[in-house]
Design brief:
With 385 residues, the chain is of the alpha/beta class. The protein has ten helices and 14 strands. It folds into two domains: 247 residues, NAD(P)-binding Rossmann-like Domain (Rossmann fold, 3-Layer(aba) Sandwich); 118 residues, no CATH class. Bound molecules: zinc ion (ZN) (2 copies).
Length: 385
């Protein structure tokens, strides 16, 4: 009589997860998460998302690795200094888990990522440390209708909050006080151009970044499983490690906060063509019965700058978002005198900028913009297909 040997099943990567009753690895495999910022928090968040097997991770950051990042960034090495953070992070994350896919976006959430791309995600995890950056995430999250997790850290304190445009709860913008707006605006000149002030270095260490990032990822895991997280929308946990404290608060929704009105389903879809003129877009919309159309840009944009010196009168084509344009470049490059410009915020058929193209307006691919019409506000998508 012959015995057939029963071989134990080979072990697989996610075996320990399978022991968790509510865990659904397939659900995580198909989850799309956008991580904004690849600094101290971002490194820890990304590491954890890769370990648990979140299948489609997009990372956006415009920065390069610096030597000062190495005390808090598990994904970076000394040999990476000077390289784009997102590229380095992508490489290391694929070493940690080759079964997932990583999209590295070396750019700025405010200017380089279309709202349509964000709409395709399940969740945004915010890993940035300024009011301005968080405001920008909140704006794009509410335009796209995608929930987001926010966090902040200092030396031995941290906080995590959760915002969901699909609820009536408070958003991040609801928390911005007059003092915070003022601090945000200190980075810009009266005209709205960018002042050349270096970002203030924050004192912080790896332990607090690990703890707070781990909390963000735990909240993300619960949300992605369709489960109630430890935070409901509009709630915040504040954590202190020295001395210990932890408490949860509900953020007050501000009655006049405009961010909540940003979520609209696109009504028109145009194929993104950099040479497409706004005139063609608005004419099509009006022909479809939406008269008095006014298209609002997400970021006010400078198209040209004209020298005020009559002997020079040099006109330069700029095509840059106003808040990205450095204050130091305001003077005329020909004669060093003052220049005049107007930032385009909206365009109507009767307006002066009607011949501007998508490229001139610095629209990213798959952008979604709001358009006021006689029949109310609609949204227009400029998709890749
Ligand atoms: Zn709000
Ligand atoms: Zn000039």
């Amino acid at each position: 009589m012959e015995f057939q040997e029963i071989l134990p099943e080979p072990e697989s990567r996610y075996d320990r997860h399978k022991l968790i009753q509510w865990w659904d690895q397939d659900r995580l495999r198909s989850a799309k998460v956008l991580v904004v910022g690849a600094g101290a928090l971002g490194n820890e968040v990304l590491k954890n998302l890769a370990l648990v097997g979140v299948g489609k991770i997009s990372i956006v950051d415009f920065d390069t690795v610096s030597i000062t990042n190495l005390t808090r960034s598990v994904l970076f090495r000394e040999s990476d200094v000077g390289l784009p953070k997102v590229e380095v992070a992508r490489k290391r994350l694929l070493e940690i888990n080759p079964e997932i896919s990583i999209e590295a976006i070396n750019g700025d959430l405010e200017f380089d990522l279309g709202v349509g791309d964000v709409r395709e995600k399940d969740l945004i995890v915010g890993c940035l440390d300024s009011v301005n950056a968080r405001w920008a995430i909140n704006q794009i999250a509410y335009r796209a209708g995608i929930p987001w997790i926010n966090a902040g850290i200092s030396v031995a304190e941290g906080e995590v909050s959760f915002f969901d445009p699909n609820t009536e709860a408070a958003c991040y913008e609801c928390t911005i006080s007059d003092r915070m707006w003022k601090r945000r605006n200190q980075r810009y000149s009266c005209q709205g151009t960018k002042l050349d002030i270096p970002e203030k270095a924050m004192p912080t260490t790896a332990p607090i970044a690990s703890i707070v990032a781990a909390m963000e990822v735990q909240q993300a895991l619960l949300y992605l499983h369709g489960k109630k997280g430890f935070l409901d929308a509009g709630e915040k946990i504040s954590l202190g490690l020295n001395p210990w404290s932890a408490y949860k608060t509900r953020i007050q929704r501000q009655k006049y906060c405009l961010a909540h009105d940003l979520t609209i389903e696109p009504k028109f879809n145009f194929k993104y063509d950099p040479n497409l003129k706004i005139k063609e877009v608005l004419q099509h919309i009006e022909n479809c019965g939406f008269s008095e159309a006014v298209l609002w840009l997400r970021n006010p944009t400078i198209d040209t700058m004209g020298c005020l010196n009559p002997d020079c009168a040099y006109i330069e084509q700029i095509n840059a978002p106003l808040s990205k344009f450095p204050d130091s470049k305001l003077a005329c490059p020909q004669c060093d005198r003052e220049r005049d410009f107007e930032a385009i915020e909206n365009i109507s058929l009767a307006g002066p900028q009607i011949n501007a193209t998508l490229r001139e307006l610095c629209l990213p691919e798959n952008e979604i913009l709001h358009c006021e019409t006689a029949r109310g506000q609609i949204a227009i998508q400029f998709s890749r297909t």
